[in-house]
Each structure stands twice: as structure tokens, then as C-alpha cells.
Amino acid sequence: MPDKAPDPLLHKHGYLGTPVSRVDGQRKVKGEARFAAEFEIENLAYAVPVCSTIAKGRITTIDASDAERSPGVIATVTAQNAPKMKRPPLMDVRHMDKGFAASDLAVLQDGEISWDGQPVAVVVAETLEQAEHAASLVRVEYVEKTARVSFEDLKAEATVPSAVMGEDPELAIGNPEKAFAAAAFKVDNVYRTPHYNHNAIEPHAAIAAWDEDGRLTVFDSTQFVNGCKHALAGIFGLNAENVRVIAPFVGGGFGGKAALWNHTALCAAAAKVANCPVKMALSREEVFRLIGGRTPSEQRVALGADEDGKFAAIIHTGVTATTTHAKFPEQFSLTPRHLYASRTMSVGQKVVNLDTVANTWMRAPGESIGTFALESAIDELAYEMKIDPVELRRLNEPEKDPTKGTEFSSRHLVEAFRRGAEKFGWSGRPAEPCSQRDGKWLIGQGVATAYYPVFRFPAAVRLRISADGSAVVQAAANEMGMGTATVQIQHAADRLGLPLEMVSFRYGDSDLPDSPIIAGGSSQTGSIAAAVQVAVEKAHRELVKLAGNGSPLAGANVEIEARDGGLFVSGEESRGETYASILKRAGRDFIEVEETSGMPFEVMKYSMASYGAQFCEARVNHESGEVRISRWLGSFDCGRILNPKTAVSQLRGGIVMGIGMALAEETLLDTRRGRIMNPSLAEYHVPVHLDVPHIEIIYNDIPDEHTPLGAHGVGEIGITGAAAAIANAIFHATGKRIRDLPITLDKLL
Ligand code: MOS
Fold this sequence. Notes:
Elements: H1 25-29, E1 45-51, E2 57-63, H2 65-69, E3 73-77, E4 112-113, E5 119-125, H3 128-135, E6 139-144, H4 151-154, E7 170-173, H5 176-182, E8 185-193, E9 205-210, E10 216-220, H6 225-236, E11 243-246, H7 262-274, E12 278-281, H8 284-290, E13 297-305, E14 311-322, E15 344-353, H9 367-385, H10 389-395, H11 413-424, E16 437-438, E17 441-453, E18 460-466, E19 471-474, H12 484-496, E20 503-506, H13 524-547, E21 560-563, E22 566-569, E23 576-578, H14 579-585, E24 590-596, H15 602-605, E25 609-621, E26 627-637, H16 644-663, E27 669-670, E28 675-676, E29 695-699, H17 722-734
Parallel strand pairs: 1-12, 10-11, 14-15, 19-20, 26-29
Antiparallel strand pairs: 1-5, 2-4, 2-6, 3-5, 7-15, 8-13, 9-10, 9-12, 13-14, 16-17, 17-25, 18-19, 18-24, 21-22, 22-23, 25-26, 27-28
Helix pairs in contact: 9-17, 12-13, 13-14, 16-17
The protein binds dioxothiomolybdenum(VI) ion.
């Protein structure tokens, strides 16, 4: 950036850029890692929710007398005796510091029912089994109203939301319908994606305990400890400093643990009523009932191209669903704004309210379903034009952001396609569909673009350097298994000139510096990195001062560099002093500094995103319709890769989730009653080992000069483009174009 000196670590490789194994890995594989439900607390009681069996209406009577007489029961909580709980604010990236919940309904405050599965009571008992049995004895009577649950039936009522992620929900350049009508080549189709539910390996869980002074401590499986702290403080009318949320290990989140959900507030309420610490660990079925997932969508994509292959029109519009209490229009229409050059463009989305559990973020919300539609359509157009789909994308690569008009901070998508195509052997692929066969198996190869924007939030970091020469970085960050701690240790070690084993990272505790560090939006690593940088710089300034006149650094009116465990004058081999020596001479055990990184203004100045090219080979059994993914190569452009081991693992994980999205996962709602019919992993299918081939990942590793450490996020982009690559490969294999996810075998017969 012109207003700042370049970061000396931007291109330099120390620990950053090397495949350091996860610092938490050993504890996890040895079973020593403690997840939210596993903390041992004295006097712990067990809470089980009673969930509504209607989707819309009002409770007339609720009779918990049998439950209360049941063995081991300590308390039942209903709207009659629940503590006062206020409505929490909704998820909003512009107010990250306030924390938020996925639904803004007040929990257990009245008898109104807004979805099938909504908690209407909680039973607390001495054991889980006693609580489960007693919960089955609670009798609830309702007056039912007609529930609005069928997206198919209600999509025509959709209206334009006030904003989509803070942007105008509709945007047009030129006259796209006219340009489309006059285009030499065109496709115009509708794509559908279903409801999806979150199925992290660790089901949602919380343990809540109140102390005598009214302070609340919660162990929560969350990807946002500070967000939960602020949301809980608001709900219970507490000062934020009287709430502590702890989450050292989280078994996957994918956006499903980014906001506060009812069970955490209910757990705290139950602990208050029962007057003892309470655990509420949701069963897999309860996760389906209480925790929302991805919205269904119907998207129209119309593409027109001129004779020279340049896009004349991109029209990408459609409908998603939300609820009155979630108000989250999943942003599929933001994707086409930044991907391709086109003479004209029209993008927009509408949203319809359903009486369902609040929909929420789910890995690359918007981009994952948006790229399915757009990247399928581009493939369809390529066949229309008889042009290679990689070539069609190259021809329409924009020089500037197509709708913002700004420069790209760093975009090397064409290079990712070139390298990916070479490694995958794309040039050997026959152009015609249905041209490869191996016995019963039809074989095809497909490609799609992956895209996910760069987000960053201000973050606070506390850094302590001790007289034994060690350093501790502390931030209220969240570790779901992505390598959060590992990468920041690599980073801090490089900046401090310390060996890796002398640096540690404390995280997962809202008592650490308060800032909106969320393990979401693929933003966490960059957000913390910016704060670590300023914290280290501050610590170095203080150490130079502390060193004083007796130090070899004294009077050094020159550049100082960190290496060999201390500070040295640049260019002078031995003129310097270790941290240990500076601190000991000053009679100090440690120094501690706290710094906050600034607003990420670069995001406004540039168009910033991660990019990728997904190459997939699918085999389709022409007798049974069974699909097997046989090869995958993801070629990514995500700035500088800070740790190849953890980054590649994230990208692979995203692709695995994309295979599930494309071929297996689908939440089935009984559209008469709004009840989820497949709330288990036996009926809601996710990919297992045999469904996933070896996934090869390559990356450009070109640093972005405008981001912390030159990196872009890698957490979400892997799922984007994946479903389209699969649909495109299936078309290439079979000649059948499936525009309806998931692509189950019945659709291929
Ligand atoms: Mo991500 S869907 O922001 O965890």
C-alpha cells in the first residue's frame, strides 16, 4: 500500500509458507482435547429440550407435572417460569462487535410457535437419561395455524429484500434483456438447490454455570466466542464483562456455529432455574430441529455471447427462502457481480419467508449455490458455442471488477486455469459428450470456477514476551480444526525471531482481548495476522526503550530486526540483545502489549477475492445412474499460502462438502407440516471415504500486496464451483444436464 511501508514478511519465507503440523493435532488424536460437552464440572445437571411438533401456532396448555415427578428431575423450564430473556440482534457483518443470534425471537418468553422443532420447554435432571425420559412426559397442546413451509408453493410471493450483505439487492448494467435477445449464442435456464442442514462432526453443545455474583460462564461449541458473549449479555441484561464463553476445541462449524442458537440461551436459563451448572448437548436429531442450514434457491441464469465469444449479457436472478426471525437472504447474486466481463448485466434476488428454523451461514453461503447456477450455465453456453469451457472463461476474464469498477488487488484466475488444465490433462479430453466409456461406466470431465470474497475484521491481540525468552499470543480466536493457532504461531515466531517451540497461542476464551474475531467468512487468519503484526511492532518499540543505554542497541538510530531470540541492528551480525537479556537487565519478568488492527479499508479500494479452477472427473453407471467421482484437481489462487498442510486440508474439505452438496445432501421437509423428515445421518447423506477420490490441490502462491501476509482466505472457497464441476462432468459423461441438486441416481435414469 502506498501509505504504508511494505511488510517485511510479505515475501520472506521463514516458518510461514512451510507445512508445519497442527500444534493441537497431538492432543486431538490422543483424545486429550476437551470439547464443549466434555468439561467436568461439579454438580452438573443435564438438560433436554422439548421441541414443538407444529410449525405455526400457539401453545394453549403445557403440562409438565408428570415430568416433574419423574425420577431425578431437578427442574422444568417453560415460558411460565423462564427468566426474562430479551431478543438478540441478528447476524450482521456490519455489527460484528455486538454479537448476534441466528434468530431474533425471544427464547421461551411466550407461547408463539414459529417453526417445527422450536423449543417449548427444557427438562433438567441428574442424568441425561432421566432428562430424556422426563422430556417425553411433557404434554403440550397447541392451536395450529396454517404454516408456510413449501418453497415451491410460495416462491412466487417472494419480494426484494432491503439489502443483500449490505449491497443493493438488484443491479443492472445496460439493457441486458435486449442484448441477450440479440446475442449470437445463448442459454437461459433455471437451477435449483435444496434445503441443506449443518452436520458438523461435533453436535452443538453448551455447559452453563452462574456464580454467586450473577456472572455467567458458558462452554460452548462456537466459532465466535466474543459474539456469543455479547449476544448472551444482551439476552440476560448483563454487562459483557460478566459473561465468559470458552471454546478451546470445536469439532467443525462451517457457519452453523457462527451465531448464537437457542440451546445456548436455554442452557443458561436452565442453569439459572435449576440453580446448578447445566449441560445441554444436542442429539443429531435436535441439531436438525434447532439449528438451521442453507436456504433453498431457484436461480435463472441467462447468458448471451457475441460471435467472438465475448459475453453480451449475464442475467442471474432468483429466489431464496428465509424466515421472519432470521431475515437472511443467502447472497447467491453477489457472485456474478465479480467474475466475468460482460457488455450488460442484470443480477438480483428475491426472498420469501417460510415458517422454518432460521436459515444461516453454511460454508460459502451464496457463493456455493451461486456458482452452481452460474458455472453450470457457462458450461452449457460453451457447448452451444462449441468452444472449450476453459477458453470461454479466459475470453471473458475482466480487467477490472465488472460491477465495482475497481482494480483487483490480486487476481490470477487465468493462471490457475492454465496450471490446473495442464496438471489434470484437460487437453486430452474429447470435446463431445458421451464419448468415453469403460464397460457400464460413462466417463466425463467437467470444470468450473471457484470464487470467494476476501473479508477481514478489526482484531485485538495481546502479546507477552517473558524473561525466559518465550512469547504468548493471546486472542479470542476460534479453532475448529483449521490450523488457526498453528499459523499464528508460525507468524509470530517469524516476526519475533523466535524458534517455533518458544511461541504459543491462547485462544477460544472471550476473556482474552475483546474484538470481533470470528472463525467465519474465511476471515479469521487475516484478521488476527494484522493484529499480531501491530502488537509485535509495539512490543519491539517498548523493548528498545526498555533496553536503555546499557544495551548494544543503545543509540542505534538505524533499522532494528528481530532474529535469534532478540533484536539486532540490521546488517550487523552481533550488535543486539536477546529478549531474555533485555528483560532480565530491566528486572522484568515479562512485557505485555495489546494492539488492535485497523479497519480493512483495502476491501473498499480493491476487488478482493480468492479464485480457483475445479477440475472433476465423474463416472456414471448407465444402468443404475450411480455417480462416482473418480478424479479431482483443484487449482487455487488464494494469495500467499501460509501453511501448505493446513491450507490444502481446508481446500480439500471444502471440495468434499461440495461433493455432498452435489450428489447426496438434501433436507426433506414434510411440506404439509414443515417437519424435517430425515433428521439423521442415516437419512441425510454426507459423503463417506468411498465417495471421495484423492483430491489433488495446487495453488499459485502469488502474494497479494494488499492483505496481511499476502494471504487470502482458504476456508470456504473449496466448496464453490464444486457442484457445477460435478454437474458439468456428468453432462460430459452422459449428455444429461441436471439443474436440480442433489444429482441423485433417479435423475440420471
Ligand atoms: Mo463460514 S459459512 O462464514 O463459517
